[in-house]
Structures are given as structure tokens and as C-alpha cells.
Amino acid sequence: LRVLETPDLTDCSEFGNRSCSENFRSAGVRGVMYLFITAVFILTIFGNLAIIISISYFKQLHSPTNFLILSMAVTDFLMGFAIMPYSMVRSVENCWVFGIIFCKVHYSFDLMLSLVSIFHLCSIAVDRFYAICHPLHYPSTMTPAAIKQIVALCWAMPAAFAFGVVFSEAYASGIEGYEMLIKCSGLCPIVFNKLWGAFLFIVGLFGPACIMIGIYVKIFTVSQRHTLELSQAHRLTKNNKKHELSKNKDRKAAKTLSIVMLGFLICWFPCFFAILIDPFLNFSTPLSLFDSLNWFGYLNSFCNPLIYGFFYPWFRKTFKYILEGKILNTHFRTIKILSEDQSQ
């Protein structure tokens, strides 16, 4: 996501003979920035690729929740593979050198992937809600067919919105000087007016965030009540112990996924909020600040594999198997990954 200041231009004279302004950074600084950002998106690519391979390859990890995590890892993988490299050049060189058509394609995918992530997080919250609060209905509700439909909606709706809004330029309607800026500037300016900035903030972040927070509060309230009910019993039967173990797995999974949700909100809220208020500030937000907030949002795709690695023992185990090349043996697909006390 990116919003740039749009001055009132009547001609292209202020841009001179070149569409991009002189880069104020030295060659050494640019080199360090290239190295650091390259390391970030390479780690993002391989970290999320490890999640994709792990869940796709090992049959014991084929669960509704994990398929949603797999789809979200694809989102983070694409963010590192298809978005970050071009954004890196724009940020380091302070110039967009790939043309206006690809600028729109780039920002359409950028906007789409961020919305796909928030939709997946909402879907995962609903999945955990049924698993913990309505366990008897969970198998019949979160079926493979239902998961496929959810994933399709999580991708289709953001794609239609992002490409429709960006290529129609509805987001810039009423912004004075925008057309001239497009013709003259090499900065790939994507500007959200007051209406679309507010719509994006409410529908793309604030609304889903409120829904997810409400769901997880309900989940942890129900989990706490179940724990108290079981603790009041003097002893547990074998079936009750098995039921409690299953509940503990679901609670651990919900806790981990709520941390993933919190990480997304922390990383992307500043950028979405800047998009919301920038039109009301007459597009006076500094370019460097927007760029920094944009990259802070990108870091969420880098952090998610680290969260999974820290909280999910199965991911650490499968990552080790991938590095050792054991997955080249097709019979290794059925190996036991999850122990009795590990969360799904």
C-alpha cells in the first residue's frame, strides 16, 4: 500500500528533463539498504515456503486450520517474491523505474495481498471459534469443501476490489493535479481520497479487527469456563482426559493464531491509519514516512514464519526434515509429526 503527496501541477516543468528527482543517498548507503532489504525478502520467501511445503507434504498436518494457514503462507510468500523486490528499488532509488502500467499492477497486488491476509485471519478466527465453542458441529461445518470455498472467497474478493479500484482510478477521484502527476512523475503515485481512504481503513482493517478480537475474546472466555468446570471435578475419567487434551490443543492453537493476528494488526495499522488521515491533512504526509510505514507492514510477512517456528513444535520438526532432504522420500509423508500434547 502506498500513498504519495499530489501537488497541484499545471505542467511538467518542475520535473525537468527527468521524471525522477536526484537521489539524496550515497552509493554506500544504497548498497547497505539493498543488502538488508534483500536479506529480508529472501528470508520471507524461504520461511513461508517452508510452511507451504510442510503442510502440503505431511499428511498428519492436513487439517482445516492448517489449510487456512497454508493459504495465508502463500500470501506472505507472494508478498516477498512479487512485491518486496520492486518496492525495494522504489525505496532505495527514490524513484519508480518500471512504468506506469506495472505501477498499477504492482499496487493492485500489494493492496490485494494485504487484504487477503486479513480475510484469512478472520477465517482462521471463525475456524477456532467453531472448534472450541461448538466442537460437535465443527466436523460438519469446517469440511474440506467449506474450506475450499472460504479460501476462494479470501482471494477473489480482495482481488476484485484491489484491481477494480486501482485500474479505475476511483481512489483518486476529485484529487486536484493527480492526472498531471501521473504524466510527469516517475514516483508511481497511488493516492486515496477521503472516501476510499476511509472505506479501506474500515473494511480492510478496523472492521475485521473488531470481529477477530470479539471472536478471540469469546474463545478464551469459553476456554476459561471449560477449565474451571473440569478443575471442579475430583477426578477425570479416561474419556474426559482425552476430551481435555483435545481442548488444550485447541486453546494452544487459538493462542498462537491470536498472536499472529496481533502481529498483523501491529504491523499494518500505522500504514492503514496514515492512508485514512492523509487526505484530511491535504496529502502532506512525508514520502519517507509513508515508505517506512509501508515496509513496517511488509515485515508482517517476514515475522509470521518466526511466530510459527516459536510456538509450533511441528513446524520446527518439519523444517529440520526439509533441510535434511528427508522429504525427497515419498514414504516420509505419513511420518508422525504431532505428539499427543502438541497443538494442531
From TrEMBL:
GO terms for molecular function: trace-amine receptor activity. Residues 47-308 form the G-protein coupled receptors family 1 profile domain. The keyword Acetylation does not apply. InterPro entries: GPCR_Rhodpsn, GPCR_Rhodpsn_7TM, TAAR, TAAR_fam. One of its GO terms (cellular component) is plasma membrane. It is a multi-pass membrane protein. It comes from the Eukaryota. The keyword Transmembrane applies. The chain crosses the membrane at residues 32-55, 67-87, 107-130, 150-175, 195-217, 257-277, 297-315. Keywords: Cell membrane, Disulfide bond, G-protein coupled receptor, Glycoprotein, Membrane, Receptor, Transducer, Transmembrane, Transmembrane helix. PROSITE patterns: G_PROTEIN_RECEP_F1_1, G_PROTEIN_RECEP_F1_2. It is found in: Cell membrane. Belongs to the G-protein coupled receptor 1 family. This is Trace amine associated receptor 2. It comes from Catharus ustulatus (Russet-backed thrush). The lineage of its organism: Eukaryota, Metazoa, Chordata, Craniata, Vertebrata. The gene is LOC116994597.
